[in-house]
Amino acid sequence: MKILCPHCHKQYIIDENRLPADKTGIKMPCPSCKGLIEIALASDKGPGNSSDQTAGPKAPQDPKLKTGQELKKRIFSSLDDLPLMPQVAQKARKVVSDPKSSFSDLAMVIDTDQGIVTRVLKMANSPYYGMSGKISSVQHASVILGTKTLMEILTLACSSEILGSTLSGYDLDAGDLWKHSLATASGSQIIAKRLKPALAYDAFSAGLIHDVGKIILDPYVLERKEAFNTFAKDGTQSFLEAEKQILGFDHAELASEVCERWNIPSNIAKAIKYHHDPTLSNNDDLSYIVHMADAIAMMSGIGSGLDGMLYTMAENAMDVLRLNQEDLSIIMVEMVQYVEKTTQGS
Amino acid sequence: MKTTAVKPMKCEFATEGLLWIDKIATGVGLIIFNSEHKFAAGIHLLRGKSRGDFPENPAYYADTAIDHIYETFKSKGINTNLSVAIAGGANLLSTEEQLSVGQRLISTVKALLSSKNLTVKLEAVGGNKLRTMILNIDEGKIQIS
After folding, report:
1. How far is the C-alpha of A56 from the C-alpha of B123, rounded, in Å?
2. pTM, whole model, 2 decimals?
3. Chain A residues with CB inside 8 Å of B46's CB?
4. Chain A residues 206-245 within an 8 A CB cutoff of chain B
5. DSSP per residue over A45-103, as a string?
6. Do the Cβ atoms of B8 and A336 come within 8 Å?
7. A333 interfacial to chain B (CB closer than 8 Å)
8. CA of B45, closest CA in chain A: separation in Å?
9. Could you give the CA distance from residue A57 to residue A254 in angstroms, rounded to a whole number?
């Protein structure tokens, strides 16, 4: 039996013969994150009657009956299982938006979460920021790197745990979604700097969490893996279409719910919602930027999974963003270098 | 078995075990191998011609990368019987051919190989598939999936 931890998304195989035959369910701590995994046991379990099961967000057993609105309702009711974006991220945003705030104010907010401090220092000392081993405190980082860069690093530090999980449904190993997200974040920032520099920071944040809907959908994709594999093998329709046909909705649609839960600013939530079809966004620049960066990240192959290149690029995206073929190649290379440098040693 | 993984824009040389290039999408994976000397090179290219730039990392551009590999083989006295395989150049769905970054990169790589009299013996290019190339140096077999 396959068990998926709802907290860290690690997958485990359990010998069914070792499970109690007289119980309808058991609870166990996840060996990795120590979160509680609840396993429902079928009453007619017997030898040879093996099954895959997703614990946590309770995925339906009969896909014919549980799709569309009914499945969506169940998924939304299980959103409580989704890890929260650390509060320090929201507090830091408030500090940065206050014109009276100083470097020290931002550092003081970050210093309240020691787990995040460790990750911020690790990233600030990564080769990408050119400060390897030189930054010893958040206060120090705020002075040397500046508020904008420190906020960028904080966003990375707050998202790394959530986006670093294994997504077995999408065939993404631990770190794959994280790398793809990093690539999209850096690509979004590069495009924004060329088009509308004022959008650069929001573009980075939106690019980083654009695929958060996949984290929620993964257990349900895993349960219907055969249908998704068949769809992917056929390779003639987009993976978004597969999600819509098999589940009744797609990961971009679900992501906007998560953004609300995480108190993500509405412009970023909008870009995430429309990142696969920015033509529906009422000409929203940020939606086009994240869409294009996501497409280029897929073209690079970084952190790609089952859905690979099974997406389309909006026909007008290149014109809206004033990009040509050569630009795509250049941005792709910059993305790869960014991911390489920020993940070095991790 | 020793496995040498090739990252994007990195050139690796290997003399035993497996040479492995995975997650090849729009970029082009290139393997050049001499079975007699059991010497192989692998690269995952993302950009075409350098237009006169000489980057610190020769794997940055297709022309500087292929020159670097060719010269390395030559410096080891290996000029002939080179097996060449390429994979990649994939597109997102519904991408028109003239707009395809991958298609252009494939054409550039083939032209560069041809200029060195290197003939591609195995290729899997285009479409919308992510690909993996594995060379088993000990057995002399290249697999593209």
Report:
1. 44
2. 0.78
3. 300, 329, 332-333, 336
4. 235-238
5. --TT------TTTT--S-TTTS-HHHHHHHHHHTGGGSPPPPHHHHHHHHHHH-TT--H
6. yes
7. yes
8. 10
9. 14
B106, two tokens:
């494939």
The amino acid sitting at A195 is: L
CB atoms B99 and A325 under 8 Å: yes
With respect to residue A24, please indicate whether it lies within any of the assigned structural domains.
yes
The predicted-structure confidence for A88-139, as pLDDT tens digits, reads as follows: 887 888 888 888 888 788 888 888 888 788 888 888 888 888 777 778 888 8
pLDDT at residue number B19: 94
* Interface with B, mutate which of A277, A329, A330, A334 (most B CBs under 10 A): A329
Q: Hey, which residues does A95 pair with through a beta bridge?
A: none
Residue A161 within a domain? no
Domain membership of residue A156 (yes or no) is no
Is A32 exposed, middle or buried (CB count within 10 Å of its CB: 0-12, 13-18, 19+)? middle
What is the torsional sign of CA A30, A34, A40, A42? positive
CA of B126: how far to CAs of B63, B88, B94, in Å? 20, 6, 12
pLDDT tens column, A242-276: 898 888 889 998 887 778 777 788 899 999 999 99
Indicate the SS3 state at residue A282: coil
Pairing verdict, β B120-125 and B83-88: parallel
Choose from A276, A300, A312, A335 for mutation: most chain B CBs within 10 A.
A300
Contacts of A329 in chain B (CB under 8 A): 46-48, 101, 105
Task: Set out the domains of chain B in order of their start, with CATH numbers.
Answer: 3-144 (3.30.1330.200)
What domain range includes position A206? 167-173+181-339
In a domain, A274, yes or no: yes
Indicate the residue of A237, A312, A333 with minimum beta-carbon distance to B92: A312
What is the count of structural domains for chain A? 2
Which residue is closest to B105 within chain A, CA to CA?
A329
